[in-house]
Amino acid sequence: MGNDFFYAQPVKTWFGESCLDRLGEVLAAFQIERAVLVCGRHFAAAAAALQEKLPAVKAVFSAVEPDPQLSGAVRAAELARETGADTIIGIGGGSALDTAKFAAAIAPGDAEPLAYYRGEVPFPTNPLKIVCVPTTAGTGSEVTQVSVISNGNEKRTINNPVFMPKAAVVDPLLSFSVPAGTAVCTGLDALAHALEGYWSKNHQPISDLMAVEAVRLITQNLEKVRLAGPNADLPAHSAMAYAALLGGLSFALPKTAACHACSYPICEAFHISHGEACAFTLDSFVRINADERLEELCRRAGLSGTEELAAWIANIKKKAGLRTRLSELGEADIPALAAAAAVHPLMQNNPVPMDAAALEKMFETLR
Ligand SMILES: [Zn+2]
Question: Ligand 1 mean position to 25 CA, how many Å?
Fold first, then answer.
């Protein structure tokens, strides 16, 4: 095999403390005159203030829930149609951004939303423009073409070019006020993005560079963020916001692997957050996937090796009160979890083949 690769990153990205103040400038750069803003309830008041300030924002949909449902994206898409919007701005954590992306994709279409969701009909080729403003340091959704949407208990990770944002506005002041426990969950999701992009079978050198830097920044700043809590140590929060962006860029092309593949059945069974679910198996997969390449990443990121990285992850999970055993999550059906994770498409990207038996063995160690 040679060293040839493909690389592209189409999202125009603005980063910096207070850069949300430049949202009007960003909309103008794309000639956006009619937009719907999509966010969660906690952001409703701030969204109203933004609408006041930005004439291009014609309506606000502030009913995004955690584990966002298809029904929410359908309502946001209807609002976009009613207001003649050409753009959807998502502001929030992964839930708000993924809802905005799905709404923008289906708004111009005539087919049943469920048919798009299930992949029975192709998405319209003329999606609305998408602008993403993350308010947590974790998801990376602002720079990927992935949208994770649920329909009842069914949760799908849909990877499609129609979900690619036009612009990302990453303002570390937005994640500055996030509670410490949430910051650790989202920060470990970002770490999983970087590591999985790096060890994915589709890894490539430009994404690798960003993964190394993300791992360095996260292992040097997440504990500071945890100790400082919300609204303190802005440099550490800023470093995490940047690391989360790099994490997104690390997996945007290579995609994630076993850890994310396991997170979906874990979330379905126990309804925990995406970040906590990814963190749950992350140190296990650092050990399972340990090889010379991963040792090299650790050294370049300022760690002695994979063992230190795995121990660091286990330690911060414990200190932040994240659950680390299946018994803390509830009644676990290990064979069912292993079987569901084994057939998840992302499992194919893992460098070490993991079948249901191997996964069962891993879950047994986490009983
Ligand atoms: Zn993730």
Answer: 30
pLDDT for 344: 96
- pLDDT digit string, tens, across residues 111-149: 999 999 999 999 999 999 999 999 999 999 999 999 999
Which pLDDT score, from 0 to 100, does residue 2 have?
61
Cα-Cα-Cα-Cα torsion 152, 158, 164, 168, nearest 10 degrees, comes to: 50
What is the distance in A from the centroid of ligand 1 to the CA of 338? 19
Say how many Å lie between the CA of residue 363 and the centre of ligand 1.
19
The answer to whether residue 153 scores a pLDDT higher than 90 is no
Tens digits of per-residue pLDDT, 310-358? 999 999 999 999 999 999 999 999 999 999 999 999 999 999 999 999 9
DSSP 324-365: -SHHHH-S--HHHHHHHHHTSGGGGG-SS---HHHHHHHHHH
* Domains identified in the chain and CATH numbers: 12-117+124-174 (3.40.50.1970), 176-365 (1.20.1090.10)
Q: How far is the CA of 91 from the centre of ligand 1 (A)?
A: 17
